[in-house]
Amino acid sequence: MKLTTKTARHCLVPLILLTVAANACQAQDSDSAVEAFIEPYQTIQIPATEIGTLVRIDVREGDKVHRGQTLAQVDDRILQASLAAARVAKEAKGNLRAAQAEREVKRRQLASLEELRIRGNATQREIDRALADFEASDARLQAVNEDLEVRRFEYDRILAQIEKRVLQSPIDGVVASINKDVGEFVAPTDPIVMTIVQLEIVQAIFSLPISVAAQIVPGKTVRMTVGSEDRPVQGVIEMVAPIADAKSGTVRVKVRIANKNGRVFSGSTCRWELDASMQEALASVPSRRLIMAEAERKIKGR
Question: Per the database record, which ranges form the CusB-like beta-barrel domain (predicted)?
């Protein structure tokens, strides 16, 4: 009896799976639409590129942000002190004025000796020594100018480091999540502070048979419905993947949907109403392939 029960259980599991797959395939075959999920058009994780302690977070989850808006800041007090020292160093002119004055004195001495030589009151050796002194003073002036240039670059470098400690939004979007708190240390192994998503435009990524790919033209407007209430929306085909999935025989197709009013929620089901020619091509491909392709894509991610 135990052996019979165990055998029955082993037979029952594949039967259940087969029934579920058959029902899914029948539902897909009998319909004129393919489904996908609405996703943000862009999902950007905002990292802190400089290690340190978060001293400020200027937004909350759900806030709308604009491109270039300050989101948070990492402690920069040590860098600010270094910047002040670098500012004084790059603006210091004492060595420059001294080098300029010395060069001018050596230039006048050389000119004076050259005049004396014309009258026979100076030797060539004196002229050569004065010329060497002038060239040495000219080299010292050049060295001072080069040192000031290095100091200016050092000031700019510190200023850039400070700017990198201010986290800014790269897009117009919405704060989807905040991963850190004020006072928390941001390490190189875990630099993500928050995630920004773009929702004024959303997207849906469909898996369609290779046979349909030739009929899909980027830039074409398509009719779709969104959500459980099947609200009609229009999308624009943005991309047809250049590589097909060999296992499922399908191609990824990205559709862009305008969402300025925010009525299309990310995560909602999106149904693409196919035209007659696409329906015919879709019917020739086992629906199981489409189901498997979408499942694999959701597991692996885009």
Answer: 208-276
The C-alpha atoms of residue 71 and residue 165 are separated, in whole angstroms, by 11
Torsion from C-alpha of 288, 254, 38, 67, nearest 10 degrees: 160
Q: What pLDDT was estimated at residue 20?
A: 41
Distance (Å, whole) CA 255 – CA 207: 11
**Token code pair at residue 83:** 């910047």
Cα(216)–Cα(237) distance, integer angstroms: 8
pTM metric for this prediction: 0.68
- pLDDT for residue 294: 60
User: Beta strands 231-240 and 70-74: pairing type?
Assistant: unpaired
pLDDT of 299: 62
For 33-44+190-286, the fitting CATH number among 3.40.50.300, 2.40.30.110, 2.40.30.170, 3.90.550.10 is 2.40.30.170
Mean pLDDT per block of 10 residues along the chain (302 residues) reads: 45 42 43 84 95 95 96 95 93 91 90 84 86 92 93 95 95 96 94 96 91 83 88 92 86 93 90 74 57 59 56
